């Protein structure tokens, strides 16, 4: 699962437009060299983009975490759960609001015809879904027997059109690797969403505060992306050609379907908890996932926005693509597994300190959802390979199988409350992470054993963090921030020593990537 995405939750991108020259554009010599250099070039190019994205990601996440902490102390668990339910229902619609043109424009050859066709498709589909959500809001509220959900759904429906209209400029900026420009738009979105949501929450607007903030942030992001797009706006959608429409839909529709299925898989637990356990339980469950989402899962999404355009450019050179993918898997698993395990270890200390004592029921779910994030680190990125090689249908097939198996498993697990649901998600994620990497190895025509070797540093460091973290947390150092800081420092120190002493080559390569050598 993943926590419902407000406009605060979307990945940020790079730094500022002044730094554009550091990230290769579509026409720059650096971008042209991507098709000629060694396999390591892909990893280095991805790392540069990710480093730029990380700057804005850090700024955006800081705003998000402050907002979440404050809202957790202003809103009750039930109010938090109601907003989560409305957000997850809108997230389902948002996955298909642009009919996949966001992905199609990155994959297709650049042309004004494709851009105009994509904008027409996004406007029609996004507008239709917005109207449909407004009309369906009373029915949705009746199904969940929560009248308060009706107005939340109607307000959040506006964000569907905003997201759809942002899809084209966002895709064009990503395709041309203009991450600094995306940074500006992403930071504007975070600031608008956070400030408005907090202002309304302090004014006692309750659950509505986060809904209104989300809509405002989405609109601000769409406007910013259009204003930052170089080369003009392809507004002449009446000139869209049938061939371009077909090309966008041929790639975009399966990609959108895959995204919808992924969202159903990752968020169906919210629907099941809302139906079987109620809004208050959903509030605790949602908050439990906020930290692994912000600190771990959004990093995966951030990397995806960088590497998918690079994978698409390198799809004609499988050797270079394989080398780049293995390096991304190695780095991603190292971060995801160690961070997930570490978060699980300190969960019992972190929740009271950050969110307050009334959120105590979120501790146990946080432990398992942190491990879920760690497990997902082993499989995240495979779908980017499927799409880059022009086979988004693979994701659809895998997602369908997973959804069919997951729903009855979660319904059964709900008898043990939200902790049971979290355990079921973690177990299923492990099975499918391994399966998706096996499929990725086949489409890349390489041995699966190479992927296993790539994740060994992450697994070893994760195990060490669990042993050291549990040992240090058991020391009689008192409660509160000082003890928490000692545990975190011990975990970070352990990872550094392992990299420096055992995985020396990985340590040196990470240093080179950070310093862009």
So how many helices? 18
Q: Radius of gyration over alpha carbons?
A: 22 Å
**How many distinct domains?**
2
Q: Profile the largest sheet.
A: none
Tally the beta strands.
Answer: 0
- Give, in order, the helices and strands: HHHHHHHHHHHHHHHHHH
Indicate the structural class: mainly alpha
DSSP strand content: under 5%
Straight-line N-to-C gap: 37 Å
Low-confidence blocks of residues: 5-40
Specify the overall morphology: globular
The overall pLDDT average reads 82
**Roughly how much helix do the residues carry, as a percent range?**
over 70%
Which oligomeric form is depicted? Answer: single chain
Molecular structure report:
- InterPro entries: Poly_Biosynth_Transport.
- It comes from Arthrobacter crusticola.
- The protein is mainly α.
- It has 2 domains: 217 residues, no CATH class; 239 residues, no CATH class.
- It is 79% helix and 0% strand.
- Helix 14 runs antiparallel to helix 15.
- It is globular, with a radius of gyration of 22 Å.
- The chain starts with 28 loop residues before the first helix and ends with a helix.
Keywords:
517 residues, 18 helices, transmembrane helix, membrane
In short:
This protein is mainly α and 517 residues long.
């Amino acid at each position: 699962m993943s926590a419902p995405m407000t406009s605060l939750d979307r990945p940020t991108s790079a730094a500022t437009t002044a730094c554009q020259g550091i990230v290769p554009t579509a026409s720059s010599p650096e971008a042209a060299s991507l098709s000629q250099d060694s396999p390591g070039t892909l990893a280095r190019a991805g790392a540069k983009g990710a480093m730029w994205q990380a700057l804005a990601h850090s700024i955006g996440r800081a705003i998000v975490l402050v907002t979440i902490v404050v809202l957790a102390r202003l809103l009750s668990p039930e109010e938090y759960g109601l907003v989560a339910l409305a957000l997850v229902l809108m997230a389902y619609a948002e996955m298909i609001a642009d009919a996949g043109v966001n992905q199609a424009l990155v994959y297709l050859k650049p042309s004004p015809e494709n851009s105009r066709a994509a904008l027409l498709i996004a406007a029609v589909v996004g507008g239709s879904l917005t109207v449909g959500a407004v009309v369906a809001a009373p029915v949705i509220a009746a199904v969940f027997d929560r009248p308060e959900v009706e107005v939340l759904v109607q307000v959040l429906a506006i964000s569907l059109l905003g997201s759809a209209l942002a899809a084209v400029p966002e895709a064009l900026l990503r395709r041309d690797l203009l991450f600094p420009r995306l940074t500006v738009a992403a930071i504007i979105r975070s600031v608008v969403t956070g400030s408005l949501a907090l202002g309304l929450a302090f004014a006692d607007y309750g659950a509505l505060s986060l809904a209104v903030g989300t809509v405002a942030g989405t609109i601000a992001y769409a406007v910013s992306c259009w204003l930052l797009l170089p080369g003009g706006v392809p507004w002449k959608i009446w000139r869209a050609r049938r061939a371009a429409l077909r090309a966008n839909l041929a790639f975009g529709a399966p990609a959108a379907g895959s995204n919808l299925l992924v969202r159903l898989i990752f968020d169906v637990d919210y629907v099941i908890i809302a139906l079987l356990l109620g809004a208050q339980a959903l509030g605790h469950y949602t908050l439990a996932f906020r930290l692994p989402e912000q600190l771990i899962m959004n990093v995966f999404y951030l990397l995806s926005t960088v590497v998918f355009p690079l994978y698409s450019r390198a799809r004609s050179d499988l050797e270079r693509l394989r080398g780049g993918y293995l390096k991304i898997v190695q780095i991603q698993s190292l971060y995801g597994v160690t961070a997930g395990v570490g978060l699980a270890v300190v969960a019992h200390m972190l929740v009271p300190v950050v969110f307050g004592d009334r959120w105590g029921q979120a501790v146990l779910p946080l432990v398992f959802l942190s491990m879920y994030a760690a497990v997902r680190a082993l499989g995240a990125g495979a779908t980017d390979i499927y799409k880059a090689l022009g086979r988004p249908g693979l994701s659809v097939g895998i997602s369908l199988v997973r959804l069919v198996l997951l729903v009855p498993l979660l319904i059964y697990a709900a008898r043990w409350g939200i902790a049971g649901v979290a355990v079921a998600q973690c177990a299923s994620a492990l099975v499918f992470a391994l399966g998706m990497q096996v499929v990725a190895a086949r489409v890349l025509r390489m041995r699966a054993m190479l992927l296993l070797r790539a994740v060994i540093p992450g697994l070893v460091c994760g195990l060490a963090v669990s042993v050291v973290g549990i040992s240090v947390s058991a020391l009689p150092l008192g409660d509160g921030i000082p003890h928490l800081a000692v545990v975190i420092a011990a975990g970070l120190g352990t990872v550094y020593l392992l990299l420096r002493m055992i995985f020396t080559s990985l340590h040196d390569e990470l240093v080179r990537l950070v310093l862009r050598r």
